[in-house]
Request: fold
Amino acid sequence: MLKAFLHKTKTEAGLDEAGRGCYAGPVFAAAVILPKDFYHPLLNDSKQLNEKQRNLLRPIVEKESIAYAVAAVDNNEIDTINILQASYKAMHLSLDQLKVIPELLLVDGNRFKPYLNIEHTCIVKGDSTYASIAAASILAKTYRDEFMQELHLQYPQYDWAKNKGYGTAAHRKAIEEFGLSIYHRRSFNILPAQQVLF
Reply:
């Protein structure tokens, strides 16, 4: 069962990202402040849930949270500043939008770039440990999936509606056949001789 909080009295925001390992599209991040007594039996790391469960939980998290925000950093900026820095930036941008200022940040993973003067704690597998991080993982994942489904309409040959930009065998084969789109991450060196599709 997920832990409801790390600190009994501090206002905590859970942070997580989605799309860090993808070949294409932005990296998304979410920040979520949940009530200390929030509980939902389905809530878990987004990777442990199916699409239907994530889509069911998203409006619940949005309605029941004290505050939430989602932000993205696009593939061009990822190529400029690298994916790790882009992940930090997306998290910072989500925090910028929160209507409530947290006193403590619970961050999924083992590293984080400090945000303002707010205390943070990094938790490996935090999205399967703390409710607020799990909630953030669900928002980041569902918002990103939705975005990739919209991009799929422009570039159906890559099947982003299905693979969401991850480097599946079918996605790699499509890149070999059609070259790289304007949404692919050049810094990931996906193809030895990269062809650009305009």
In short: The longest strand covers residues 12-18. The chain has six helices and five strands.
